[in-house]
Amino acid sequence: MEKLLNNIVRKEKFIGIDISATSVKILQFEKNKKNYKLISLGEKEIPITAFVAGVIRQKEIVSQGILDLLKVANPSKIKTKFAVVSLPDDQIFTQLVNIPKVEYSKIRETLSYQLPSFIPMKEDEIYWSYDILNETSDEYEIIITAVTKESSDSFIDTLSLANLTPLLFEPRSKSALRSILVKNDVQNEYMLIDIGKSMTTVSISKKDSIQYSSSFYFGLNQIKKIVGEYKKINDAEVEDILQKEGIPKKDAKLKEYLDKMFETLTGEIKKTINFYGEDKISKIFLYGDTLNIEGIEEYITPITKIHIEKAKPSLPIYPVLQWEKHEKISPYIPVIGIELINKVKNNTTINLLPAKTQRISILKFFVKEFLQLLNIILVNLFILSLLFLYLSFQNEITASNLRNEVTSYNRQINSSKYKGIAGTINKLNSDLNTVNTTYKNHLVWSPYITTIASVTPAGMAITRMTIKNVNSTTSATPIWQVKMSGVAMSRAQIISLSKTIESYKYFYNVTMPLSNFQTNANVPFILMFDIKT
Predict the structure, then answer these.
(1) What residues contact 91, with CB distance under 8 A and at least 6 apart?
(2) How far is residue 31's CA from residue 144's CA, in Å, rounded to a whole number?
(3) How confident is the model at residue 485 (pLDDT cuts 50, 70, 90)?
């Protein structure tokens, strides 16, 4: 089921949604050759009480924020009802494991037995998924990713209130990695540091997956609190100082307080680097809400020899976005990545939607597809009906005109002036009889076409259809024969259609050539049958 839903994600249009402690961001663009055309972009602030510790606590407020964005997003409004969403990393557990080689269908069952040793929570408290990184003759190297049910369920309920159907949930760091990898080598291993308002996440990537992630309390709010209390100024004044000057360095005492606080960040970074090895990590990417504050990277540089770079995906998006500065692009990196999920080739996916939600999402997708197909059929039938009415009307007009002409000629014949035109009158009478016979024997074929269209299996294409009178005797009752051809997905579809047609009381003599059974798939076919009138 998860594989089916991932295939749907590959071809469906959707919006990307990223919810953080302070705002909701949405993004939608489509790939056009080598460029990415921006469809919609928007951000709306939410109260700090609405989203706490990775869980949406005030679902009505957040869902209303999403609904507002769907209406006012630029450059155009959002029309789709499907969404892919990045989940907060502080509610995510990731583990790289190796298991003996088993059948693909038994991988999840095998992992489930060992899950308690991989994830520090009970299985009934989480939703989890996995992705195969490497495969040898003896074992699999697998990334297991889990999210707390409390966090995931809060997102599902919020999207439901906003009348949106989720297609995929994935970790925020995984979304950010996809955005960053657009212009970087997927084979390298990177460290990603997401410094937010109150939480920071340090992640390690392997190929295009997150193999390690750790979240801890450190962010802009702590920095602002120390500066504000020390200088005895309000948040707005602190924000102004940080934007203009960066992290304060001139005041030795204040710098000492800040240095002490930054030990939380640098300690976690050093621990991760020591565990994975400095030689394995090719680059460190910084992103998040504090990236526009100068001086943060100066705390990280002394503890590592790894190149540090502010993340900025170089996507050729048009209309050109005003993202020249890091502070403008940085908060959008995760939502850009989640929106890229069906536009990047050979991209691995982790879908943390629970099984029940996946079933509902798949059902809604196929209902939408069915309604679109039904709409096409109804439009075509309407056009065919109009065409039939038009042709019938034209026939009636032609017959009426001929009758009027005959009447006029008869009047002229009765006068002595036109005694020599009997031959002309006879010819007109003959023409009129021909028209009347044609009109009498005309087949009203739209009901039969409607029946054939309604019983044709999905995926079976009818490319040509003819209905003609095969009775060579013009005066006898017509024998109408239908001949249609096309391409079926399988021979079974052809047999099924022929039996269905034969079951109708006004179809008979259903025949088909042996050529219908020469291939197993994408089968060219011909069906012939008669219509009882």
Answers:
(1) 53, 54, 55, 147, 148, 150, 151, 152
(2) 30
(3) very high
Q: What is the pLDDT of residue 442?
A: 61
Phi, psi of 354 (to 5 degrees): -65, 160
Is the pLDDT score of 284 beyond 80?
yes
Answer whether residue 321 shows pLDDT above 70.
no
- Count the alpha carbons within 13 Å of 432 in the hemisphere toward its beta carbon: 14
Closest CA to 332 of 25, 33, 46: 25
Rg (CA), the chain: 35
Structure confidence at residue 327 (pLDDT) = 47
What ranges in 120-232 are assigned the alpha helix state H? 149-161, 172-180, 220-231
Q: State which of 190-204, 320-334, 429-443 shows the largest mean pLDDT.
A: 190-204
Q: What is the DSSP string of 443-457?
A: ---HHHHHHHHHHSP
Distance in angstroms between the alpha carbons of the first and the last residue of the chain: 48
Tell me: the pLDDT tens digits for 436-450?
Answer: 665 555 667 778 888
Q: To the nearest 5 percent, what fractions of the chain are helix, strand and coil?
A: 45, 25, 25
Q: Are 40 and 15 spatial neighbours (Cβ–Cβ below 8 Å)?
A: yes
Q: Which of 465, 533, 477, 471 is nearest to 505 (CA)?
A: 533
Separation between Cα atoms, residue 190 and residue 306, nearest integer Å: 10
Predicted local distance difference test score (pLDDT) of residue 413? 59
> Measured between alpha carbons, how far is 301 from 269 in angstroms, rounded to an integer?
11
Indicate whether 229 pLDDT > 80: yes
Q: How far is CA 79 from CA 13, 40, 175, 483, 528, in A?
A: 10, 10, 23, 42, 44
The pLDDT value recorded for residue 312 is 76
Per-residue burial over 97-117, b if 16 or more Cβ lie within 10 Å, else e, is bebeeeeeeebeeebeeebee
Q: Tokens in use for 154? A: 């809060």
d(CA 114, CA 92): 18
User: What pLDDT was estimated at residue 57?
Assistant: 93
- Residue 45: how many other CB atoms lie within 10 Å: 10
CA dihedral 21, 67, 85, 272 (to 10 degrees): -10
Q: What are the phi and psi torsion angles at 176 (to 5°)?
A: -60, -40
* Global confidence as pTM: 0.66
How many Å apart are CA 86 and CA 17, to the nearest integer? 7
Mean pLDDT of the region 249-257: 88
Residue 151 pLDDT level (bands cut at 50, 70, 90): very high
Contacting residues for 315 by C-beta, under 8 A, at least 6 apart: 36, 182, 336
